[in-house]
C-alpha cells in the first residue's frame, strides 16, 4: 500500500472514530466561592536542573515523508531530554501545585485556546498545560497527513485525522489529569504531553529551567516537578502573605 493510500484510509478511520465518540461531558465548575485576594497573594519561584551526564539525543528516522524532512532537515534528533550544557538547566518540566490549595477558592476558566502546533512532524510545544474546561487546539502546519491521538485516563479519548495543512482541531478536557499523552499514529516519534489543571498554578520550564507560580494565596503547598522520562520530584513550601518562596528541583538519569 502506498503512503498516500495509507494516509487516506487512516484519515477515514480516524474521522469515523471521532464521529462515533461519546459527546464530552459539560465543563467543570471553577471550584468554590472565594476569589483569591491579590493583596495577600505570594509566589513560588525556582529552577530545575539536571545532575550528571544527560542521555544522548538519538536520530529520528523520518523515513520517506518528504514534508517532514523539508522542515526538520535530514538529520533530526530527539528532544526528550533537553539540558543546557553550560548551566545544567532542564527544559520541558511541568511544575505545578499538586496539593494544599483550599477547595473553597474559585478560578475563572480562560476562554482563549491553548495551542499545540505540528511543525516539521513534531508537536510544538512538546509539553504544555491547560485548564479543565478551557479550549485546546491542535493545528497541522505541515504539508502532510497527521493523526492527533490523545490517550487520557480521566478524560475522553479522541483520535482525529488531519490530512490537510492548516487544519485545526479543538477539544476540551473536563477533568484534571497529569499528564495526557498525545501521539501521531502516522509518525511514531511524535509525542506531546498535556497537563490538565483545576487551577492556574502551573507552568513549563523553558531553556533556562526557571519557573514561577504567581498569585498563590497564603498556605502550605506540595509543588511537583514532572518530566516525561525522568520522573517526578516534590517539595513542600509555606507561602506567607505577599511572600516569595524559592525551591529547586534536580533530576538525574538514575
Explain what you see:
With 254 residues, the chain is mainly beta. Strands 5-11-10-7-8 form a five-stranded mixed β-sheet. Strands 12-2-14-15 form a four-stranded antiparallel β-sheet, with no helix packed on it. Helix content is 10%, strand content 41%. The model is unreliable at 1-29 (pLDDT under 50). It has helices at residues 3-20, 66-72, and strands at 42-51, 94-99, 114-119, 122-124, 127-131, 135-140, 146-151, 158-162, 168-172, 177-184, 191-197, 202-204, 210-216, 219-227, 231-239, 244-252. It has one domain (3-252): Immunoglobulin-like (Sandwich). It has two helices and 16 strands.
**Span of the ends, CA to CA:** 43 Å
Mean pLDDT: 89
Regions with little confidence, pLDDT below 50 for 5+ residues: 1-29
Q: How much β-strand is present in the residues?
A: 35-45%
Largest β-sheet summary:
5 strands, mixed
Specify the CATH homologous superfamily. Answer: Cupredoxins -  blue copper proteins
| CATH level-3 fold name | Immunoglobulin-like
Structural class: mainly beta
